[in-house]
């Protein structure tokens, strides 16, 4: 019987907010993780305003905090993400969809846009330890096959 070997590949591109792109890329580079939705959020002074409310300069605000939703089908990788995120203290992670149990959808919520910027800075400065990538799992699998 032929064995099906999975590979992670980019199927399409999407437009996302520039400010959260490094976080989305970091997550998508991890084994079994796929991001779904994201937003870099509004500045702190706009958060909490009612949707459509104008500020002093006439801008319409939605008052959104930064977030990214993702799925993860590997418990070890989810543990790694939780440990990494918990080290920041500037965000929280929660289950947002249980519809396809045991595959949950998770959401990383940053408290403010400044907290998102801290994580982005850490990612860009390589102070976020990268977890196992698909290449790492393939190498380990190939070692076991020999």
Question: How would you explain this protein's 3D organization?
Answer:
- The model has no long low-confidence stretch (mean pLDDT 77).
- The chain is α+β, with helices and mostly antiparallel strands and 146 residues long.
- It has four helices and six strands, in the order αββββαββαα.
- It has one domain (18-145).
- A hairpin with a 2-residue loop joins strand 5 (91-100) and strand 6 (103-110).
Topology (SSEs and partners):
Elements: H1 21-28, E1 33-39, E2 53-54, E3 60-61, E4 67-72, H2 75-86, E5 91-100, E6 103-110, H3 113-124, H4 134-145
Antiparallel strand pairs: 1-4, 2-3, 4-6, 5-6
Helix pairs in contact: 1-3
Low-confidence stretches: none
The helical percent reads 25-40%
Shape label: elongated
How far is it from the N-terminal to the C-terminal residue, by CA? 18 Å
The total number of structural domains is 1
Beta-strand segment tally = 6
Q: How would you briefly describe this protein structure?
A:
The protein is of the alpha+beta class and 146 residues long. The chain has helices at residues 21-28, 75-86, 113-124, 134-145, and strands spanning 33-39, 53-54, 60-61, 67-72, 91-100, 103-110. It has one domain.
């Amino acid at each position: 019987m032929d064995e099906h070997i999975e590979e992670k590949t980019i199927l399409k591109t999407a437009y996302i907010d520039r400010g959260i792109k490094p976080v989305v890329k970091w997550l998508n580079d991890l084994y079994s993780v796929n991001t779904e939705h994201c937003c870099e959020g509004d500045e702190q002074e706009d958060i909490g305003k009612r949707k459509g409310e104008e500020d002093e300069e006439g801008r319409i605000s939605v008052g959104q905090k930064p977030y990214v939703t993702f799925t993860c089908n590997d418990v070890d990788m989810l543990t790694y993400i939780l440990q990494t995120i918990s080290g920041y203290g500037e965000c929280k992670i929660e289950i947002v969809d249980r519809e396809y149990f045991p595959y949950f959808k998770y959401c990383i919520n940053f408290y403010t846009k400044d907290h998102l910027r801290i994580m982005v800075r850490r990612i860009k400065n390589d102070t976020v330890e990268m977890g196992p990538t698909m290449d790492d799992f393939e190498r380990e699998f190939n070692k076991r096959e020999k």
